[in-house]
Amino acid sequence: MTTSIHYNYTLDHIHTNMLLLITHLRELESKPREFCNDCVFKHATKLVGFLEEAMQFIPNGKHIWPDLIEWAQNIRLKIKSLTPEEANKIADEGRLLWKEISKIPREEEHSTSIRHKPSLLCHCIGQPGCECDPDQQ
Q: How much is the pLDDT for 76?
């Protein structure tokens, strides 16, 4: 079982990389000189990695993760030949997918049922309900 820290970390990175991809795809038409294939490829690759992690431990999104992986992989395959129209269409598809993942709730930042291993530093930093060793906070 994973902690809420890993769940939220992965979900945050999915949101971030999706928004960056959507923004970059829109720039192909509005700012073609600033459009960067390498940046788009990088964000799509990161997104696939975080989505693969999400498939393992964020069950709330299991209905959408495969579609998102396909969307990001499609970007990686087409990046060098995208027209502004195609980029906008893919960005529109991404926006719809992003709205779906935005419905996935974040987990509580700290649950009293989660105990940290002694070798790890506490990530809840003394929040109310924290049962961690004070030396680890």
A: 95
